[in-house]
Design goal:
By secondary structure, the protein is an alpha/beta fold. The protein folds into 2 domains: 173 residues, Acetylglutamate kinase-like (Carbamate kinase); 147 residues, VC0802-like (2-Layer Sandwich), CATH 3.30.2130. Helix content is 33%, strand content 26%. The strands form 3 sheets. Strands 3-6-2-1-9-11-12-10 form an 8-stranded mixed beta sheet, sandwiched between helices. The chain has a 6-stranded antiparallel beta sheet with strand order 14-15-13-16-18-17. Strands 5-4-7-8 form a 4-stranded mixed beta sheet. Strand 7 and strand 8 form a beta hairpin. Bound molecules: adenosine-5'-diphosphate, aspartic acid and magnesium ion (MG). Adenosine-5'-diphosphate (ADP) binds next to loops.
Length: 412
């Protein structure tokens, strides 16, 4: 039988009633003749609560134990979903990551999926099981420890299963009815896209649009998974939601297709470091080893052989970054006068494949921010995106101003 993957995010399984609602959508696909692999997230708010318990217990926590704790939310929903389906006479059972087993790297809290052997599920499907309910977000390392795939990782679980089982499609059910030009919670003018190019979705996701985890889009690209985002609260048909597809399959094209933001950014500056060959390696090597995800980097011009080095990283990694930098200083690898951490910044980005062939997007972006009197602290660009770091209090205003400036409410 053809296989369909259906993923339900946290708000879509937030309570028993919603689990029931999702189960009905699953039963409908079973009636249509699919064997279904369902991926579930933890109930909304649960993972945040678990993360908070870990951070309160141990600020510089052992990541293996973090994973043991934060993966548990998904176990509850997987079991409840299987029970709900059984009550509806749909043959179903639940699987935790290690039972599949979904094998991952040992990079705890940000593990990568290495393999999903099919044997166990295939055998159960052959015996008449119609729905395999998989706890998303989690796997097992070669060392036999429970791992997680990073926040939002159930999307990646879903796409990886779709690839491994050659599913007809991977449907991501969530609390919005598709991918929009920007987060519809920030501006009412956000427009739902019928289609979006994989490459643009990849940029938007990596720049903060949390509707899909970045790794899930990468996997869909690599394995040519047909990926769709749609609402778990509405009745859907074949044309519902947003199809994340190849660039060639898209008719409309705006130069800029979306605006993304990331609220949880911090800007750190090492004041007065010696400007000598190897200094960047001496700073960013220890940060990488400490697992700090450095994003933007700016080195100022130097005066009398000393310079300031600024970088951005997620707010919740500031303590880790400070620790790594202080240790590097103590060991004599680097020398600086002080570290300044600004945790009140946000990153706002515009994305579009049309930028490859259009000049002037950056100027238009900077003008729109200027018109709102928003100061830019750091800028980075790539072929299809421009990002700026600004004061967090202006983040929503910046997103709205850019959405207006590039007329994203209108289809191209
Ligand atoms: P789930 O729990 O289903 O995984 P998430 O909260 O992770 O859902 O992702 C869905 C949310 O992503 C939406 O509620 C929306 O606020 C946010 N979002 C951010 N950017 C976009 C965008 N461009 N299009 C749609 N939703 C977006
Ligand atoms: N529950 C996990 C999280 O909140 C994974 C997911 O929902 O995708 O990050
Ligand atoms: Mg999500």
């Amino acid at each position: 039988m053809p296989i369909l993957v259906m993923k339900f995010g946290g708000t879509s399984v937030a309570d028993l009633e919603r689990i029931g609602n999702a189960a009905q959508k699953i039963a409908r696909e079973v009636e249509r003749g699919y064997d279904v692999i369902v991926i579930v997230s933890a109930m909304s708010g649960k993972t945040n609560e678990l993360v908070n318990w870990v951070e309160t217990t141990s600020p510089l926590f052992d990541a293996r134990e973090y994973d043991a704790v934060v993966s548990s939310g998904e176990n509850v929903t997987a079991g409840l979903m299987a029970l709900t389906l059984q009550e509806m006479n749909v043959p179903a059972r639940s699987w935790q990551g290690w039972q599949v087993p979904l094998q991952t790297s040992s990079a705890h809290a940000a593990a990568r999926i290495e393999a999903i052997p099919r044997d166990n599920l295939d055998q159960k499907f052959a015996e008449g099981m119609r729905v395999a309910v998989i706890a998303g977000f989690q796997g097992i390392s070669a060392e036999g420890r429970i791992t997680t795939l990073g926040r939002g990782g159930s999307d990646t679980t879903a796409v990886a299963f779709a690839a491994a089982f050659e599913a007809e499609r991977c449907d991501i059910y969530t609390d919005v009815d598709g991918v929009y030009t920007t987060d519809p919670r920030i501006t009412e003018k956000a427009r739902k896209l019928d289609r979006i190019a994989l490459e643009e979705m990849l940029e938007l996701a990596s720049l903060g649009a949390k509707v899909l985890q970045t790794r899930s889009v990468e996997l869909a690209m690599r394995h040519k998974v047909k990926l769709r985002v749609l609402s778990s609260f509405e009745d859907n048909d074949e044309t519902s939601g947003t199809l994340v597809c190849d660039e060639e399959d898209i008719m409309e094209s705006n130069v800029v297709s979306g605006v993304a933001y990331s609220r949880d950014e911090a800007k750190m500056t090492l004041v007065s470091v010696a400007d000598r060959p190897g200094i960047a390696a001496a700073i960013f090597g220890p940060l990488a080893e400490a697992g700090v995800n450095v994003d933007m980097i700016v080195q100022n011009i130097s005066e009398e052989g000393r310079t300031d080095m600024t970088f951005s990283c997620p707010t919740n990694q500031v303590a880790r970054a400070q620790d790594a930098i202080e240790k590097a200083k103590e060991s004599g690898e680097i020398n600086f006068h002080g570290v300044v951490a600004d945790t009140e910044v946000a990153k706002v980005s515009v994305v579009g494949i049309g930028m490859r062939s259009h000049a002037g997007v950056a100027a238009q972006m900077f003008q729109a921010l200027r018109d709102e009197n928003i100061n830019i602290k750091v800028i980075t660009t790539s072929e299809i995106k421009i990002s700026v770091l600004i004061d967090r209090k202006y983040m929503e205003l910046a997103v709205q101003a850019l959405h207006d400036a590039f007329e994203l409410e209108k289809a191209g």
